[in-house]
Amino acid sequence: METLAEISSENPTLYGLIVVAIILVEGLLLALFLELVFRILGIEVKEIPHH
Amino acid sequence: MYLPLAEVEISGWLLLAIGFCVGVLAGFFGIGGGFIVTPALNIFGFPMAYAIGTDLSQIMGNSIVATFKHRKLGNVDLRLGFFMIIGTAIGVEVGKEVVLYLEEIGKVGSVVRSIYILLLGGTGAYMLFDYWKFKKEEEAGEEKKVVTERVGSKLSEMVHRINLPPKVALPQSKIKSISLWAILLVGFITGFLAGFLGVGGGFIRMPAMIYALGVPTTIAIGTDLFEIIFSSAIGAFLYATEGRVEIVAAAVMVCGSAIGAQIGALATSYVRGMKIRFYFALTILFAAISVVMKQLAVSLSIPVLSTYAGYLILSVAGLMTLNITLSTAKGVIEERAVYPAVKRRLRILLATGGSHHALRAIRLGARLAKGYGAEVTLLVVKDPKEEIPVAEVQRSAGKVLKELGVKAELTVRHGNPAKEILKASKEYDLLVIGSHGTRSITEHLLGDNATHIVENMKTSTLVVKRKAEVTKILACVNLPRYREAVVRRAIELAKILNVPLEFLYVLPEPLIYPIRRLHLSSEEIMELYPEKREAAEEIIKLAKSEGVKASVKFREGIPEEEILLEKREIGADLVILGDSGWRGILGELIGSLSGHIVKHARVSVLVVHRKA
């Protein structure tokens, strides 16, 4: 956490990019993981074809 | 945990809980949820700027998860989303400039807050009024009784009439044609308000898409979330470059909100249309009250009012989350109680051209829909060549549906009935149509609309003929490719309709000696082919495990003839078989087994499509 705080003060743009990248990857991984969990639990919803 | 940037000590569990709450609401309403998280973080010690920055990052992650889920549910209109983003981006920029101007003349605070209150209160009150009107009509027993949602409004009709090219079609949102400028304008206005008020704008965009563009509620939710990913990403980046994002807190909240978003998005399958609007209206009305309290806290110098405002919005969010979570749990449990094998809601299309036999189809289709706990759409196709009183058809169909306690969305199409029904059926799991059977010589030779639909079908199709009642089902399991699907569907239907079921295998005549037929009985065939006996036993076992009384029979001969003979012998009034034969012109010329049965059987026929 201290390192992140340092990056934030020393290189704000890099910190901005890190924040967006972390959240993006976390969001995608969580979406995939939870999809799997819900499927295992048997409450997944069918993929509806898009026309 | 200690957060060094904001210099705050906060419990990780608390962050998870806040994330979960906002995730449920975001997934359900299609909002970012900034008006909930920002005051919550602020109450728990985050300085305002950190609360906003961290919230924006959390919203981004939350929207990714919720959009992913909504995309699976078919609720994201990417085309509309991209057009809206363009309009919104320009609008946000202009809104920001206006705020800067007001700041210069020193009137920014009061103006922004007053408009925020008006917007939240106005939108909430209008949506509540709309819901109340809908309920009143429903109670008065008008034809809308069968409709779960009223798509469009007078405003959206006006917007659709704007005849300014280029015009675009949004099939996902069920919009045939709309001026691109209209979408950009709505995007611009909502973006302007978002930029002006300094909020994400989900609570403005979602109703704007419903009322101004005529987008169905669930599509508005999914598309709004898709847009929020981009707007919140930009916001998160800008706040992070200022060092105002506590990434650890945001990451923890995203974990909670991801689970919540799944539940919220799933809830839109169980709580649909007008009810979602009702809950949304309540939430933003309370948000308006909370802003009023904050304004009073400033103008009357009572700082404690501001804290109470935060608690008020948190309580509303908590109660709403509880309500949505319970609704989802109830929906899942009820669905499984009705039929445990059905893990998701089936989509059934009941199509009618207005004839009497179509009403029988609606009756049987509605019984199945009730058993499946399916989503139902009633499609009325108006053939320009025929005089069909749509309102009358709608009313009689509504009566049948009401009698069976089934609710349906209503769609009206104009054009050739077979073509329109085929086109519409693509998005459904089951199409139910009525057929009077072949009446004229031409129909006997070429087939009626039902035969044409079955020979070109895009989904499993149930053709209902003389009666809606079913007392015995005959399921033909000839085609190995369809065997599993036919067996499954047949057991499901027999269970729902509570009728006995017979599976039929037809062994084709030997090609080399087509004249000689062995005339073997079903038992003899089973003796001759032990692997077929085993397969038959498996099927009976499966049916038994589902509480369905079933038997298996073997016949030899030409399938077309044997199926019809067996049907007559056992008195089956529903035949189920797999889709077979060629497609298109070749199919029309050669015909197919399913087409033949639909044409010649005088009872209802369900043809299971290859995608099943």
List the helices and strands and how they pair.
The complex is a heterodimer of chains A (51) and B (612).
Chain A: H1 2-10, H2 12-41
Helix pairs in contact in A: 1-2
Chain B: E1 2-3, E2 8-9, H1 12-29, H2 34-43, H3 48-72, H4 78-104, H5 108-139, H6 154-161, E3 167-170, E4 175-179, H7 180-197, H8 202-211, H9 217-241, H10 247-267, H11 274-299, H12 303-338, E5 347-352, H13 356-372, E6 375-382, H14 390-404, E7 408-414, H15 417-425, E8 430-434, H16 441-446, H17 449-455, E9 460-464, E10 473-476, H18 480-497, E11 501-507, H19 522-528, H20 530-545, E12 550-556, H21 559-570, E13 574-578, H22 584-590, H23 593-600, E14 604-608
Parallel strand pairs in B: 5-6, 5-8, 6-7, 8-9, 10-11, 10-13, 11-12, 13-14
Antiparallel strand pairs in B: 1-2, 3-4, 9-14
User: What is the SS-derived class of chain A?
Assistant: mainly alpha
Question: Biggest β-sheet of chain B, characterized?
Answer: 10 strands, mixed
Mean pLDDT of chain A: 76
Q: Per the principal axes of the C-alpha atoms, what is the gross shape of chain A?
A: rod-shaped
Tell me the fraction of residues in β-strands of chain A, as a range: under 5%
- Which strand order do you get reading across the main beta sheet of chain B? 7-6-5-8-9-14-13-10-11-12
Instruction: Compute the average pLDDT of chain B.
Output: 78
Strand content of chain B: 5-15%
CA gyration radius of chain B, whole angstroms: 29 Å
Largest sheet of chain A: none
The residue ranges of chain B in which pLDDT falls below 50 over 5 or more consecutive positions are: 143-148, 439-447, 511-516
Assembly status? heterodimer
